[in-house]
Fold this protein.
Amino acid sequence: MTTPAEIERKVRQLDNDVQSIYEMLAEIAATQRRQGNRLMEIASKLTEMDDTLTGTDGKVSEMDAKVTGTDDKVTEMDGKLDTILGLLRGGQPG
C-alpha cells in the first residue's frame, strides 16, 4: 500500500513533469515563431528576386529585338556589298 509520503512525492514528480512539459512547449513555440519570421524574410527576398528577374527578362527581350534588328541590317548590307562587288568585277547587278 502506498503511504501519504509516497503519494505526495508522486504528485510533486508529476507537477515537475508537467512544468517541464510546459517549458518544452514554450521553447517549441518560440522556435516556431523564429522560424516563421525567418520564412517570411526569405519569402520577401524571393519576391524581390522575382521582381528583379522579371525586369531583367524584359531588358533581355529588348536587347534580343535590337540584336535581331541589327542582324537584319547586316544581312541587308551584305546583300548590297555582294551587289557592289559584282558590279566592280564587271558583272551585272543582281
User: Anything to note?
Assistant: The first helix runs from residue 4 to 88.
